[in-house]
Amino acid sequence: FIEDEDPTKIMMQYRTRRRGFHYYVQGQVKEIAKVLFIYTRQMDNKLDCKLKKQEIVFDTAVFHYELTFDNTGHVEYVKSLENRTESSMPIRAGVLFEMFPFCILYEKDMTVRNMGSALRNCI
Prior knowledge:
Layout: E1 2-5, E2 9-16, H1 22-39, E3 48-57, E4 60-68, H2 72-83, H3 93-99, E5 104-106, E6 112-115, H4 117-122
Antiparallel strand pairs: 1-2, 2-4, 3-4, 5-6
């Protein structure tokens, strides 16, 4: 799974019980990146996959890889998240309360903020 991502690299963690299998995974990641870069017409983009840390937890080997490449897709994704506003959400809160009449919405301090119509009728 992906631990961290930024514009220049991805930190990936791989867990397995199979000894020595991490070399295969490292090779697969490199080959998948080559195909992906060709498919997206990023011929100059190259992936460097380095094993940063290796540990054994009980019977499971945990490998931490650093995948270094031009990760412009991540930059575009972060920008699109920043541009997204609450008004652009496709469903209003009132619609959710109609769909789930027995729901309860709590504040951080566990005080009831709102509840569905069926619960309001009971109280």
